[in-house]
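Quick one:
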Amino acid sequence: MALDTLSTEEALAVMNSADSAAVAAVAAERSNVARAVELVAASLGAGGRLIYFGAGTSGRLGVLDASECPPTFRCEARQIQGVIAGGSGAMFKAVEGAEDSVEGGAAAVDEREVGPADVAMGIAAGGTTPFVRGALARARQRGSKTIFFCCVEKFVGEPAADVVIRPLTGPEVLTGSTRLKAGTATKLVLNQITTLAMVRLGKVHENLMVDVRATNEKLRDRAARIVATLTGINREEAMNLLDDAEGSVKVAVVMQLKGVKLFGAAEILERHGGVLRKALEE
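Output:
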């Protein structure tokens, strides 16, 4: 209540304490997040998609998470998508009134032809965003599995969903500004869902991102370090091996440890659904 009278360090202490509460609130929802992970992994493994629907901060966080998955996990952009009320322009500038349209949410679902193979996740910190409610209702009509994320207690008339995740983050330091604690909780949950779904799909070996897509020098260096770590060769050798493996960490590792060429390594991985651990155990 006295935020405007505190010193900068005092105000930061208040915000730090509030942020810790957001982490605890997410931990309390672990079982529901686990259900969401399994739902998403099953969908992606069967060729379906995870599509986030949100407005404002919630929508931006969905787009952010979706955009980071292809380089990290070598998945196709279509597999994980983020939809924000007001369209792509709303990522950078508020689009007034876009979140208030139930019809807009339903239309976004229809536009992407969401169906039984997919998972639609509605993100609405306050729970009542019409765009999200419209999207979830339409997704269920089309047979999609649904996840509803909010940061409020259960309320009459909330959207129906297969899984509900509700970290109760409580009042914000700046009253009503859900880009703070609620935004932090949202980012944490989205991180958990996509990261662990990809682990379930064999895109991680130990805790290494063995499906990284080396699209720049930083990621190429990371890919080489992963190959070196898993095979025991030096960085220069790993770089050369990656070139021979057409940039694939998994293929490079199998080539080195199994003593095979490119196509032989690819065949071994294919026999095991791309799971490196199983390929190395053959």
